[in-house]
Amino acid sequence: MNVLDTLQRPLRNLRLSVTDRCNLRCAYCMPEEEYRWLPKRSILSFEEIARLVAVFTSLGVDKVRITGGEPLLRRELASLVRLLAASPRLTDLALTTNGVLLDQQARELRDAGLRRVTVSLDTLQPATFRALARRDDLERVLAGIRAARDAGFGELKLDTVMLKGTNDGELCDLLEYAKSVGAELRYIEYMDVGGATRWRPEHVLSRAEVLERLTQRYGAIEPVREVSTAPAERFRLADGTVFGIIASTTAPFCRSCDRSRLTADGMWYRCLYATVGTNLRDMLRSDASDAEVAEFIASSWRARADRGAEERLAELSRGAFVGREELAQNPHLEMHKRGG
Ligand code: SAM
Ligand code: SF4
Ligand code: SF4
User: Fold this and answer.
1) Which of 260, 194, 239, 263 is closest to 18 using CA atoms?
2) In angstroms, what is the span from residue 112 Cα to ligand 3's centroid?
3) Which of the two ends of the chain, N or C, has the fewest CB atoms closer than 10 A to its terminal CB?
4) Which residue among 96, 122, 167 has the greatest number of ligand 1 atoms within 8 angstroms of its CB, and so is best to mutate?
5) Residues framing ligand 1 (Cβ under 6 A)
6) Would the CA dihedral through 128, 131, 133, 136 be positive or negative?
7) For residues 38 and 287, is the Cβ–Cβ distance under 8 A?
């Protein structure tokens, strides 16, 4: 079954946040001192998540990415992976992590059926890591990346959010590092999503600037020609090294966006910038049948018209999308709740 929204975009990709908690405090995601966590009783159990994923796959979802907060903080995550990996309709089961706990869990996750891992890595400098993530865990992240490679995660990806004046001097070092561990690096433009309360346009390093700087160092760069709805555009250096750029801020890709997001407490958002979500948890915990849940999800998707990042691009004077007070009132707007 293929459900299309008002812009003919299919429902295919589900980001599954399994916790809103995190062991880092990245400046572009969780810059505040205090956060309000979701109450435990509201968090979906693995059985509830697996039931919902089965409903989503019956509607055409074939890609699931487990995320958070920091997903490896969720206890027994491998059990959830095992449940999801058993679904014959899922062609892609992936995880995005900050890598701090990956050293301990990579092998178990791989054995449970996880196929792909993306590790967020913004810097190779301990002092920059400390300043950016407000924790001293760079060595653990690097150990996590090595553990993922050793566990046999072939398509290992490293995601770097670029911040002007913070880590933009490391574009080449990060690319060389990715090459040395057999991973593909993706540069991500800093987005003004909920949670990024310190976002300013002048901190964004654009796709054009990345390409210019890499060309200065490596010479000609060619685009990789491929048909894909993935957000990253891929490029190749003369020596064959491939990397990606996710230009979500300066060149958003809403027109082909097939992604939606489920928070750890069962709120479903059809856009990263959506201010209103749908409470699927209450429906699950009522006596609704799978067919009723499926029809509800399908009709909500059919009505979807979101183009959040494109609409933000049209704003002339842009600051943070959501201010601190509004976030305190509605924590579901935060990226670490919604799952990046
Ligand atoms: N904690 C895990 C991690 O950091 O990989 C998973 C959740 S995190 C919210 C998912 C991704 O969102 C990370 O790669 C992070 O860099 C990205 N992210 C968070 N805030 C962002 C922002 N303001 N702009 C661009 N990317 C952002
Ligand atoms: Fe950083 Fe991910 Fe935690 Fe956000 S959720 S603070 S991006 S590690
Ligand atoms: Fe999709 Fe919304 Fe992101 Fe655009 S802003 S790519 S519609 S999630």
Assistant:
1) 263
2) 30
3) N
4) 96
5) 22, 28-29, 67-68, 70, 96-98, 120, 159, 161, 188, 190-191, 193, 196, 335-336, 340
6) positive
7) no
Helix 77-85 and helix 46-58, axial crossing angle in degrees, nearest 10 = 30
- Compute, in angstroms, the gap from residue 116 CA to the centroid of ligand 3: 22
Shortest-distance atom of ligand 2 to CA 70: 5
Q: pLDDT tens-digit profile of 252-308?
A: 999 999 999 999 999 999 999 999 999 999 999 998 999 999 999 999 999 999 999
Is the pLDDT confidence value at 230 over 80?
A: no
Domain residue spans of the chain: 13-338
Ligand nearest to the CA of 205: 1
Please classify residue 314 by burial: count the beta carbons closer than 10 Å to its beta carbon, then call 0-12 exposed, 13-18 middle and 19+ buried. exposed
Task: Tell me the two tokens of residue 265.
Answer: 């407490």
Ligand 1 centre from 31 Cα, in Å? 12
**Quick check: 64 and 92 in contact, CB under 8 A?**
yes
CATH 3.30.160.390 for domain 13-338, yes or no, is no
Phi-psi sector, 339: left (phi>0), alpha (psi -120 to 50), beta: left
Per-residue confidence (pLDDT) for residue 314, from 0 to 100 = 81
Per-residue pLDDT tens over the stretch 2-23:
899 999 999 999 999 999 999 9
In whole angstroms, what is the distance from residue 30 CA to residue 151 CA? 30
